[in-house]
Structures are given as structure tokens and as C-alpha cells.
Amino acid sequence: AKADGRKQIRFFDSSMTRDLARRREIEVELRKALRDDQLSVYFQPIIDLQTGRIRCFEALARWFHPMRGEIRPDEFIPIAEDSGAIVTLGNWLTAKAARAAATWPEDVRIAVNLSPLQIKVPGAAVGILSAIREAGLAPERLELEVTENLFLEDSMNIALFIEELSEAGVRFVLDDFGTGYSSLGYINQWPFSKIKVDRSFVSGGQAGTKSDAIIRAVSQMGRSLGMEIVAEGLETIDQVRAVREAGCTHGQGYHFSRAIPDYQAALLLAEEHDT
Ligand code: C2E
Ligand code: CA
Ligand code: CA
Ligand code: CA
């Protein structure tokens, strides 16, 4: 039994070493990918649950590696955050997403995910504003999705950053609500126009469950504060009906569409415009 235990430990060790090696490789290759234009931006629609129309697209990074195939954001975004590459990635993605959004109808917004590190860079707010100005996108059409993690950092920077951008008209969205150290304090303190309820709360989709009660409560609170409530990860029509009935104003998920390239997003919008 003792020998077995040692073997297991050794096996665990070598798989940890492998993981670390892959991490380091990905870190190096990500910098190269950013230089060589291996990354793409995909767009996932966010739908108004009353009208069924597209109100927004969330910009999501995609990496199609020439040798390794697709590397998922769940793998490379945390590595980019640890290595600092997220700043370059974020600037690149914001500019690219804003240029795409500038070609869409004016009532369709673009949402970009923002990592805590990105706002620590001096001039971060000005950088975002000049990127959208260069793209010809009105600040009111940009939404920045942040998670509760942001507020674990130095609050002075955050206050200035949020103030500067919201005064310019940029909107802030509280992402993945319910997964972190969700505190109502954040909603009270910061000017969020939207809450995205994490996918884990919609997975069931049945009325009468705990998740359903939480979605109802969050929707009710959000609405009375004048916020929009987006349900994430809607995969079935039953889930769509359930969250609409629970009071969510918007929905996002594979039931409507996966994240798609810019030309397909433009096609979706054109089809909608014709009907
Ligand atoms: P997120 O911000 O919560 O983005 C939503 C994720 O849920 C996306 O995964 C999307 O493809 C996925 N999703 C959407 N609808 C469904 C559904 O119906 N079912 C299921 N099972 N999943 C659905 P993705 O694109 O793999 O991104 C994962 C995470 O990586 C994102 O989570 C976000 O936190 C991060 N991320 C992606 N792109 C960027 C980026 O450009 N910058 C930053 N900072 N983070 C990013
Ligand atoms: Ca997001
Ligand atoms: Ca989310
Ligand atoms: Ca998420």
C-alpha cells in the first residue's frame, strides 16, 4: 500500500509539472499570438426577452492556435491575467470590438469584459475612450462587464476609473452575479446599469426551486433600481420562459446563439432589420 501511495504521489507530481509547463508555453505563445494576429473577437447576442430583438453583443476572445487547435478562454484568460498580457489583449479586443459595433444599428450595444489589472494601468480610462472615439462609437454604446473581483483591489483607482468613464456615458455591468463575494454593497455604491445573473442559477429552469427564487429576488431588486437583468447561459426554450417569467429583462445563451464572428453578427442584425 505504501509503494502504491508513492506511485500516486509521483504521478500527481509529474502531471503538475506538465500543467506548469503548458502554462508557461501558453504564456509565451500568447504574446506571440497577440503580435501575429492569431486571436479573434467573437460576438454573442444578448436578447430583449420582451421583443426578442438583439440589444447588445458580448465580445469574447477566441484563440485558434495553428498547431494546438482552439485554446479556450477559460484556459488562456487566467494566464493572461497572471502574466499581465491581459492589458495588451484587452486594448486590442476593445478597439476591434468597437470598430465592429460602429457598423451596427445605433440601438445595439457592445459589451467588453474588463479584468481588474486593466484598470490599474495609468491612463486606462482615457485609453478606452480614445479607442472608441477612433472607432467612431458613441460611449453610450459601450458596456464594460466587471466582476466582484474588481472591488477586492485598491478602491481609489477604481472609483476614479468608473467615475471618469460613466461621466463620459459608458455603462457598467456587474457580471457573473452570485458567484463571488456578492455583496449588495457593490450595487449600492457603483452605478451599474445591468446585472448578469450567472449561468449556475438558470441551469434548472424550473419554477419553485432555490435558483428560481434567487433569480426572482435579484430581478425584482434590479428592476426597482432601474437596472436591466440578464440571464446567462440560456440553452433551452424552457429556461428562456422561466427566466422571463421570473422577471429577467434580457437573455444570453446557446438557445439564441453561440458567439459568432463579426460578419455573422452583421448578418443576424440585417435579418432582424428586414423583419
Ligand atoms: P463570461 O464573461 O461569463 O462569458 C460568458 C461565457 O459563457 C462565454 O464563454 C460564453 O461562450 C459562455 N456561454 C454563453 N452562453 C452559454 C450557454 O448557453 N451555455 C454555456 N454552457 N455557456 C455559455 P467563453 O467565451 O469560453 O469565455 C469564458 C470566460 O472567459 C468569460 O466568461 C470571461 O470571463 C472570459 N473572457 C472571454 N473573453 C474575454 C476577454 O476578451 N477579456 C476578459 N477579460 N475576459 C474574457
Ligand atoms: Ca462577461
Ligand atoms: Ca458572465
Ligand atoms: Ca462566467
Polypeptide structure, described:
This protein is α/β, with parallel strands linked by helices and 275 residues long. Helices cover 48% and strands 20% of the residues. It is built from nine helices and nine strands. It has an eight-stranded mixed barrel with strand order 1-2-4-5-6-7-8-9, surrounded by six helices. Helix 5 links the parallel strand 5 and strand 6. Helix 3 runs parallel beside helix 4 and helix 4 runs parallel beside helix 5. The mean pLDDT is 91. The structure holds ligand C2E and calcium ion (3 copies). One calcium ion binds next to loops. This is EAL domain-containing protein. It comes from Erythrobacter mangrovi.
Short description:
The protein has 275 residues and is an alpha/beta fold. Helices cover 48% and strands 20% of the residues. It has an 8-stranded mixed barrel, surrounded by 6 helices.
Secondary structure: elements and pairs:
Elements: H1 2-36, E1 39-48, E2 54-65, E3 69-71, H2 73-83, H3 86-101, E4 109-113, H4 124-135, E5 142-146, H5 155-168, E6 171-177, H6 184-189, E7 192-197, H7 210-224, E8 228-231, H8 237-246, E9 250-251, H9 262-274
Parallel strand pairs: 2-4, 4-5, 5-6, 6-7, 7-8, 8-9
Antiparallel strand pairs: 1-2, 1-9, 2-3
Helix pairs in contact: 1-2, 3-4, 4-5
Bound molecules: ligand C2E and calcium ion (3 copies).
Structure characteristics:
275 residues, alpha/beta, eight-stranded mixed beta barrel, binds ligand C2E, binds calcium ion, EAL domain-containing protein
